[in-house]
Design a protein that fits this description.
The chain contains 7 helices and 5 strands. It is an alpha+beta fold and about 150 residues long. It has a single domain (about 1-150), classed as 2-Layer Sandwich (Alpha-Beta Plaits), CATH 3.30.70.100. Strands 1, 2, 3, 4 and 5 form a 5-stranded antiparallel beta sheet that branches. The chain is globular and about 50 Å long.
Length: about 150
């Protein structure tokens, strides 16, 4: 099985605003790092090569990022051991705090590409039920075997 992830962020500014320019200008390099990372399988993109134009939620300021990895360690390595972490540290400059869970992890069958609706359902499940093998966060790290029992 492979690990799918969705994370969302509510932009403080329009994507063409100077206050968020550094984030926008680095999307291509961060996405390229993800794609070149060991364990990367797939990521959601639109015609521009990122997912900033995909409106998955009613609020047009909510940006989505969704990807699939060979496992939790592969995703963590990308997130915390590449220059991606530098942008995570700066998220308060560009994004509003979200009171509810803003990311979700779940296991998918090999070669399954999750849909946005599937990802939103997993996020909603997490928000209603906290961490379960069906939808979880890094705090729980449920295994693929545990998820298969659900």
């Amino acid at each position: 099985m492979q690990l799918a992830q969705l994370n969302i962020a509510q932009a403080k500014y329009p994507l063409d605003a100077p206050q968020i320019k550094d984030f926008v200008d680095n999307l291509e390099s961060v996405n390229a790092t993800a794609e070149q990372s060991e364990g990367f399988v797939w990521r959601l993109t639109d015609d521009s090569g990122d997912a900033t134009a995909i409106q998955a939620f009613e609020n047009p300021n909510i940006l989505v990022n969704m990807s699939v990895w060979n496992g939790i360690d592969a995703l963590k390595n990308f997130m915390f051991r590449t220059h991606h972490r530098d942008f995570m540290r700066r998220k308060g400059e560009w994004f509003e705090p979200i009171a509810l869970d803003s990311y979700v992890l779940w296991w998918v069958e090999d070669n399954h590409i999750p849909t946005i609706d599937e990802a939103k359902e997993r996020l909603e499940h997490l928000r209603k039920n906290s961490d379960t093998p069906y939808a979880f966060t890094f705090k729980s790290n449920f295994s693929a075997q545990e998820a298969a029992l659900v």
